[in-house]
Design a protein that fits this description.
Length: about 300
């Protein structure tokens, strides 16, 4: 396996990730604003950014059922299915999700080639094989992990999901798949109500702050690494933040930066390629969400020695 690169990691992003959802807690402008902040600060350069390619039908079919993909193509969802999705379904949403799924797959391929890569998007872990939930139409992380394993590029991967919400769709998809180890550390008393078991679940009590969170994570990571993954896909959700509208944990921005550092250092020490996706983030102030996502990418760059 390659060690983490000693140059700036590639970052995947596309302007079409910014979609109009109307008055909604999921503000998709965060992707563009994160990129702009990285560029303005000089912590990323334009040449680091690569455009994604839309996930192909055959790639999607490795995870999602044919009947569900047909519903997406034809916009033939029932009312209850639309309500479960919790975002308005439009052709713009569909196209952005297809592109974001391809973006996560590209970031994973880049990580395997270069040691580390980031995706300013992705992390839609609530999507199941046969339906979408909680803002998530397609499970980009599951598609990437499944494609790389079934193509024979890698034999085993690990999903490290540190969004404030349990990765229910990912856990369900890989419940009987030994090629993917799923780890979710989340607020237990939060969405979703039903949490299918991951390979490793840590449900935190309401109000957990920096010290307890970081201690629990540091204790858990060695167990993930003992599974000997050849790739880590890291969901670096910004929503464990203390001022997140959809979260109930109490992490500070400094605590979240240290969380990212723990994950990156663990991957680096063990020579495991790592791809990071941004996942959730719904702070009362959009600038806080953007600052947290920006810090994640800055730490990713620092972990490569840049």
């Amino acid at each position: 396996m390659p060690a983490l690169s000693t140059r700036r990691p590639h970052l995947v992003w596309d302007a079409s990730y910014e979609i109009d959802l109307g008055p909604h807690v999921f503000i998709t402008a965060k992707y563009r604003l994160t990129r702009e902040r990285l560029l303005d600060a000089g912590t990323a350069q334009v040449e680091q950014f690569l455009p994604p390619v839309v996930a192909t039908p055959s790639e999607l079919a490795r995870v999602h059922t044919a009947s569900y993909l047909a519903k997406i193509a034809a916009d033939s969802f029932s009312l209850s299915e639309r309500m479960n999705l919790e975002i308005p379904f439009t052709s713009e949403v569909r196209d952005a999700m297809l592109l974001s799924t391809g973006g996560t797959l590209l970031a994973c391929r880049l990580a395997l080639e270069e040691g580390a890569a980031g995706h300013l998007g992705g992390g839609f872990h609530h999507a199941y094989a046969d339906h979408g939930e909680g803002f998530c139409l397609l499970n980009d992380v599951a598609v990437a992990a499944r494609c790389l394993c079934q193509e024979g590029v890698i034999g085993r991967s690990a999903v490290v999901d540190l969004d404030v919400h349990h990765g229910n769709g990912t856990a369900s998809i890989f419940a009987d798949d030994p090629a993917v180890f799923t780890f979710s550390m989340h607020q237990d008393n939060n969405y979703p109500a039903y949490k299918p078991p991951s390979d490793l679940d840590i449900g935190l009590e309401d109000g957990v702050g920096d010290d307890e969170y970081l201690s629990v994570l540091a204790e858990a990571l060695p167990g993930v690494l003992r599974e000997r993954p050849e790739l880590i896909i890291y969901l670096a959700g910004a929503d464990p933040y203390r001022d997140d509208q959809l979260g109930g944990l109490r992490l500070t921005r400094d605590g979240l930066r240290e969380r990212d550092r723990l994950v990156f250092e663990a991957a680096n020490r063990n020579g495991i390629p790592l791809a990071v996706v941004l996942a959730g983030g719904y702070a009362y102030r959009l600038e806080d969400t953007v600052a947290i996502h920006t810090a994640t990418i800055e730490e990713l760059g620092a972990s490569t020695g840049m």
